[in-house]
Amino acid sequence: MIPWLRSPDDRLPDTQRALPPGSDAPGLLAAGGELSPQRLREAYSKGVFPWYSEGQPVLWWSPEPRMVLFTDEFRVKRSLRKTLAKFIRSEGCEVRIDSAFRRVISACSQTPREGQDGTWIVPEMIEAYCEWHRLGCAHSVETWIGGELVGGLYGVGLGHMFFGESMFSHRTDASKIALAALVCFCREHGVTMIDCQQRTGHLASLGGREISRTEFERRLSLSLGTAAISDWTYDASMWRHLERGAGADQDPGP
Fold first, then answer.
1. At what angle do helices 123-134 and 37-45 cross, to 10 degrees?
2. I need a labelling partner for 230 at 20 to 30 A (CA). Which of 11, 53, 78, 157 fits?
3. Closest CA to 143 of 163, 172, 114
4. Sequence-separated contacts (24+) of 197-205 with Cβ below 8 Å
5. Quick one: pLDDT band at residue 112, thresholds 50, 70, 90?
6. What's the predicted TM-score (pTM) here?
7. Which domains does the chain have, with CATH numbers?
């Protein structure tokens, strides 16, 4: 049995109590409670996140292992490098941060996911993260072309840690452009790890990999121990960080 959070004063259990790999719901830690800013901060500070569907109670998760993207391991394949080079050079193409958060999270909620029936970004979650955005903890990275929002992602920023939540794309590679911009922003500000929660082939192809929960929580603790990023704006000069780490590799792939 997993713990049930009945009161705002109930604390999330230790993550070691999450259901183990091989169980019916590996990583499930607790159920119930609300999506208040206080609860969300408690959860993310422990590496726990909410994930549930319409009609379910709030479900809290701590996967083992954990999918992350180390910013110096971000892979830019040849085709994406060409797309980025064209985007950076073109007039009317820009990356913005936090200019359309609600539009981004709403677009993410409407994007079909392989292997998923419906969305986990339910209306209650949209409102909760929009409130957290107003409080300066949730952020969107957006791809704009010709004044049109064509892709982006959103997530949570605490200390020197970014927790990626979801992304969408209305044009080819628009979400990858936003992710590349996020990596550059993170490198600019000394953020070394982006939480990706659970493994997907798409993230693995971009350099994401799994680490143990223990290692994730160790790194998370160090990241949260530093001052929060105060300036969430994207400057075109940050694209220079694509030449660092794995992003500078001449990948022979497409």
1. 90
2. 11
3. 172
4. 197/49, 197/51, 197/61, 197/63, 197/66, 197/67, 197/163, 197/164, 198/27, 198/63, 198/67, 199/65, 199/67, 200/67, 203/67, 203/69, 205/75, 205/77
5. low
6. 0.94
7. 4-63 (3.30.70.3550), 67-248 (3.40.630.70)
